[in-house]
Amino acid sequence: MNQNFESAIPMGNYMVSPATQETSKGLYRASIAVQRSQSKGAYCRVFNFDCEFVSREAARVYAITQGWLETGSANAQTC
Questions:
Q1: Which of 17, 21, 28, 79 has the most neighbouring CB atoms within 10 Å?
Q2: How far apart are CA 3 and CA 12, in angstroms?
Q3: What is the residue-wise DSSP string for 3-41?
Q4: pTM of structure
């Protein structure tokens, strides 16, 4: 299986690194690493998702969206 890592994306106080992996069936799975290092202590979690997608781009979008939700960026106030 071939895993594709992407550049980290800043989301508030966190950095989200999406990744996609091709399965043996030719479908794709998504995962993310969520990281923070501040004076309050370091934080790093990896999330692997069971969903399968027909394209790498669909898995990538899902991973980024889940990172956005996990970091609380969905609750960020806008002007």
A1: 28
A2: 26
A3: EEE---EEETTEEEEEEEEE-TTS-EEEEEEEEEEETTE
A4: 0.79
Q: Which residues contact 15 (CB under 8 A, 6 or more apart)?
A: 8, 9, 34, 35, 36
72, 73, 75, 79: CA torsion to nearest 10: 160
**Residue 53 pLDDT more than 70?**
yes
∠ CA 62-33-49, nearest 5°, is: 45
- In terms of phi and psi (left: phi > 0; alpha: psi -120 to 50; beta: otherwise), the region of 7 is beta
Residue 22 in contact with residue 8, Cβ under 8 Å?
no
